[in-house]
Every structure is written in C-alpha cells, then in structure tokens.
C-alpha cells in the first residue's frame, strides 16, 4: 500500500514541477501575481501545480489538504489519514527567480507525517521518504519513465540520506526571507557553543532537506509557518534520523490540528532521551 501511494505522490510532484517550470522559464510570463488574505503572493504557477497534484491524489482514498485548495472544516478532515500539500512552497523565491522553491506532498497518519515528497524543479532534485523504509535523494529527474516504475527502482537510482559529509565545522541553515531577531539570537548562542558556525540561507522546504541530507546540523525557525510548509520535510527528516521539534520542547510538530499554524520549531538530529 505504501509503495502505491508514495509513487502517486512522486508522480504528482514531478508533474506539478513540470507545470511550474513551464511558467517560470517562459520569458513572456508575468506570473499573474495576486495577493491572498494574509498578503502573501499567489501566482498562476501555484494554481496550475495544485491542479496537477489533486488530479492524481484525488484517486486515492485520502482527503487532500492543499494550501491552494478549499480548506476543509476540521470536522471533515479530522480522520486518521490525509494528504497535506503545498503545490509551490517559496512563492516569494519563485517571483524573485532564484530557484529556491519546491513542491511539497506529505501523507499524515494520526498527526504524524509518515511519507514525504519534495521536488526542487529548477535543480531537478527529488527527495522522498517512507517511514520504515528510509529517506532518499534522486538527482536529475524530471518525470517517471513509465507508469510501472516501482519504489524499489526509485531507491536504486537514488542516494540514501543522510549523505556522507566530511566537513569539520557546525552549519546552521536559516530562512532567506524570514530571518527574525529570535533566530539571530539562537545562532549567536550556537557560535558561543560551537565556535565556528557557518550560516546558510535558503528558501522553502529546501532548508529541512539540507539537515536531512547532512549538509547542515540545525535549522531553527522562529517565525510563522503552516502545516503544508513542513509536513513533507518533516517526514523526510524523520526517515533520515532527524526530528522537527517544537521550540523549547522535546515534542515534535503535530499535524492535522484544528489550527493549521505551526509553533516555532528546530530541525536537528534526534535527541538522546
């Protein structure tokens, strides 16, 4: 069952990435930028990616909670399993044309993200993970070769995460668009503890992937995010031996809450109990 659904999510993410790139790479495109109620931007690429994803995921038995879709009432979605989707995470980065945007798809069971897919269209990099199977990175992919591609075949042409890394200093990753005073204070404390701390700035869920890959040690987020911003990355981090903790607590983020706003969090290696 898991293989069937993760392959559907991979297919959906790749097809959404294709839609996004067709707009992103069109020199005549103006992105048709609108403003949502919270003043965040919405483009035609967000809408086209959403349509591509739900066309596939609606064939599964689980409801789809998408940032760009009609948000179901909690009474409707409070069941044990659902998809949580951000069709275009990093819309601000998309508009800036810096390539740091992703497609995020997660399957959540009993408030825990058990499956995650993140696609970086510009880099043609695919991250995917299944609880109990592991987390993987596949490079140079733009679509599935045929409908019969299996999860095992995807794994065979991918690298298991975390990847080997011979660096000798501590690396923290931070948001390119949301570096808050609280984050700066946290990073200052890291420097007191670790000495040489390199700071990497990035957009979208790529930040979580950098920790899952082993390219960074920690990602603190002391600014607002929604469940669709983190669910896919959280699934990938968990499968790679990392965790997404609520800031100041030993508890991980939980999903499919009545209020979809996340608390502040820290992505890092699992803490010893």
Automatic annotation (TrEMBL):
<dbReference type="Pfam" id="PF00459">
    <property type="entry name" value="Inositol_P"/>
</dbReference>
<keyword id="KW-1003">Cell membrane</keyword>
<feature type="binding site">
    <location>
        <position position="67"/>
    </location>
    <ligand>
        <name>Mg(2+) 1</name>
    </ligand>
</feature>
<dbReference type="GO" id="GO:0000287">
    <property type="term" value="F:magnesium ion binding"/>
</dbReference>
<dbReference type="GO" id="GO:0050427">
    <property type="term" value="P:3'-phosphoadenosine 5'-phosphosulfate metabolic process"/>
</dbReference>
<feature type="binding site">
    <location>
        <position position="86"/>
    </location>
    <ligand>
        <name>Mg(2+) 1</name>
    </ligand>
</feature>
<dbReference type="GO" id="GO:0005886">
    <property type="term" value="C:plasma membrane"/>
</dbReference>
<keyword id="KW-0378">Hydrolase</keyword>
<feature type="binding site">
    <location>
        <position position="88"/>
    </location>
    <ligand>
        <name>Mg(2+) 1</name>
    </ligand>
</feature>
<comment type="function">
    <text>Converts adenosine-3',5'-bisphosphate (PAP) to AMP.</text>
</comment>
<feature type="binding site">
    <location>
        <position position="229"/>
    </location>
    <ligand>
        <name>Mg(2+) 2</name>
    </ligand>
</feature>
<feature type="binding site">
    <location>
        <position position="89"/>
    </location>
    <ligand>
        <name>Mg(2+) 2</name>
    </ligand>
</feature>
<feature type="binding site">
    <location>
        <position position="67"/>
    </location>
    <ligand>
        <name>Mg(2+) 1</name>
    </ligand>
</feature>
<feature type="binding site">
    <location>
        <position position="86"/>
    </location>
    <ligand>
        <name>Mg(2+) 2</name>
    </ligand>
</feature>
<dbReference type="GO" id="GO:0000103">
    <property type="term" value="P:sulfate assimilation"/>
</dbReference>
<feature type="binding site">
    <location>
        <position position="67"/>
    </location>
    <ligand>
        <name>substrate</name>
    </ligand>
</feature>
<feature type="binding site">
    <location>
        <position position="229"/>
    </location>
    <ligand>
        <name>Mg(2+) 1</name>
    </ligand>
</feature>
<keyword id="KW-0460">Magnesium</keyword>
<dbReference type="InterPro" id="IPR006240">
    <property type="entry name" value="CysQ"/>
</dbReference>
<dbReference type="InterPro" id="IPR000760">
    <property type="entry name" value="Inositol_monophosphatase-like"/>
</dbReference>
<keyword id="KW-0479">Metal-binding</keyword>
<protein>
    <recommendedName>
        <fullName>3'(2'),5'-bisphosphate nucleotidase CysQ</fullName>
        <ecNumber>3.1.3.7</ecNumber>
    </recommendedName>
</protein>
<feature type="binding site">
    <location>
        <begin position="88"/>
        <end position="91"/>
    </location>
    <ligand>
        <name>substrate</name>
    </ligand>
</feature>
<feature type="binding site">
    <location>
        <position position="88"/>
    </location>
    <ligand>
        <name>Mg(2+) 1</name>
    </ligand>
</feature>
<feature type="binding site">
    <location>
        <position position="89"/>
    </location>
    <ligand>
        <name>Mg(2+) 1</name>
    </ligand>
</feature>
<feature type="binding site">
    <location>
        <position position="229"/>
    </location>
    <ligand>
        <name>substrate</name>
    </ligand>
</feature>
<keyword id="KW-0472">Membrane</keyword>
<dbReference type="InterPro" id="IPR050725">
    <property type="entry name" value="CysQ/Inositol_MonoPase"/>
</dbReference>
<dbReference type="InterPro" id="IPR020583">
    <property type="entry name" value="Inositol_monoP_metal-BS"/>
</dbReference>
<dbReference type="GO" id="GO:0008441">
    <property type="term" value="F:3'(2'),5'-bisphosphate nucleotidase activity"/>
</dbReference>
<feature type="binding site">
    <location>
        <position position="86"/>
    </location>
    <ligand>
        <name>Mg(2+) 1</name>
    </ligand>
</feature>
<comment type="similarity">
    <text>Belongs to the inositol monophosphatase superfamily. CysQ family.</text>
</comment>
């Amino acid at each position: 069952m898991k293989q069937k659904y993760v392959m559907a999510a991979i297919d959906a993410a790749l097809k959404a990435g294709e839609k996004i790139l067709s707009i992103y790479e069109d020199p005549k495109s103006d992105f048709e930028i609108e403003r949502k109620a919270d003043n965040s931007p919405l483009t035609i690429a967000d809408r086209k990616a959403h349509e591509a994803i739900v066309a596939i995921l609606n064939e599964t038995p689980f409801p789809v909670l998408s940032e760009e879709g009609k948000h179901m009432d909690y009474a409707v979605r409070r069941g044990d399993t659902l998809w949580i989707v951000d069709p275009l995470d990093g819309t601000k980065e998309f508009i800036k044309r810096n390539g740091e945007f992703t497609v995020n798809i997660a399957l959540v069971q009993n408030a825990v993200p058990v499956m995650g897919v993140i696609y970086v269209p510009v880099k043609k990099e695919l991250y995917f993970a299944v609880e109990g199977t592991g987390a993987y990175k596949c490079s140079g992919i733009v679509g599935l070769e045929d409908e019969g591609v299996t999860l095992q075949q995807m794994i065979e042409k991918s690298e298991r995460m975390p990847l080997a890394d011979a660096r000798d200093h501590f690396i923290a990753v931070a948001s390119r668009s949301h570096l808050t005073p609280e984050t700066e204070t946290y990073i200052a404390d890291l420097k007191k503890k670790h000495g040489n701390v390199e700071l990497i700035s990035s957009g979208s869920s790529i930040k979580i992937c950098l920790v899952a890959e082993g390219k960074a040690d920690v990602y603190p987020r002391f600014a607002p995010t929604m469940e669709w911003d983190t669910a896919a990355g959280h699934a990938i981090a968990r499968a790679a031996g990392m965790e997404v903790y609520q800031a100041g607590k030993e508890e991980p983020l939980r999903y499919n809450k009545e209020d979809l706003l996340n608390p502040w969090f820290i992505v890092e290696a699992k803490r010893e109990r």
